[in-house]
Prior knowledge:
By secondary structure, the chain is an alpha+beta fold. It has two domains: about 5-165, Butyryl-CoA Dehydrogenase, subunit A, domain 3, CATH 1.20.140; about 170-300, Nuclear Transport Factor 2, Chain: A. Helix content is about 55%, strand content about 15%. The protein is built from twelve helices and seven strands. The chain has a seven-stranded mixed β-sheet.
Amino acid sequence: xxxxxWLTERFEENRPRLRSVAYRxxxxxxxxxxxxxxxxxxxxxSDAAAIDHLGAWLTTVVSRVCLDMLRTRQSRxxxxxxxxxxxxxxxxxxxxxxxxxxxxxxxxxxxxxLDTLTPAERLAFVLHDLFDMPFVEIGAIVGRTxxxxxxxxxxxxxxxxxxxxxxxxxxxxxxxxxNAFLTAIRDGNLEGLLAVLDxxxxxxxxxxxxxxxxxxxxxxxxxxxxxxxxxGASLWARQMIALTRGLLHSVQPAVIDGSVGVVFAPRGxxxxxxxxxxxxxxxxxVDVVGDRVRLGRLDIRAV
Length: 303
């Protein structure tokens, strides 16, 4: 095996970990791929024979690339950044299933919290708390002493824990509202349902959710299979009760992308998800999702 083939093989062995590190740093799959590809380019510009531990070297390079990207993003206040790398190692196209699995493994809630940290805090927390990198190596990446790197991770950890406590309290309130929503539907209680809906609440039903007619909300035949949005709780609440009461045996609350929602999973197969937007203890928007691709990308966890 020649040198280039050997390097390519070793790099591909490390790619999943590198992408995982980069995604947690950047919160963007496309940017994570850019960072990993930049590491590949830097590897080819380096003397591979002088690298003692390729995996550690690549992790350090990816981390430094991500740190630069985070600092650039912060200074420009842009989201997302434009792709930086055009050359790819693999040519077999994107891996949607792998990307969805990666996103699910992290969770949107944590990414939102990480986005509030400084670039150095985010790097220190991710590398130490999520990937067990020693502070000596982290300090070298951020240009700080090991003690300073430890302080960065500690500050980040406190903010993450504080945000999680606040998120837990918020989800408890959301869970009460969703339980009241389901109870009203189960009992056929229109007044009870309207009590948890904002008067101007919007329901949005995607095209896939309307195909089978289960969530049509009184749509004319020519509109079946097209997305629909209705504003005003009084205009759709009664139909919501009529169309979903028969499905309650397969309905359960769940945390969806960090917020409490509802999933329809007959015989354990996810068919629909109801995503709620909350404000002041009421539901202001209901998104009925039936599209399989989007369902597969949702971060769904037990309440």
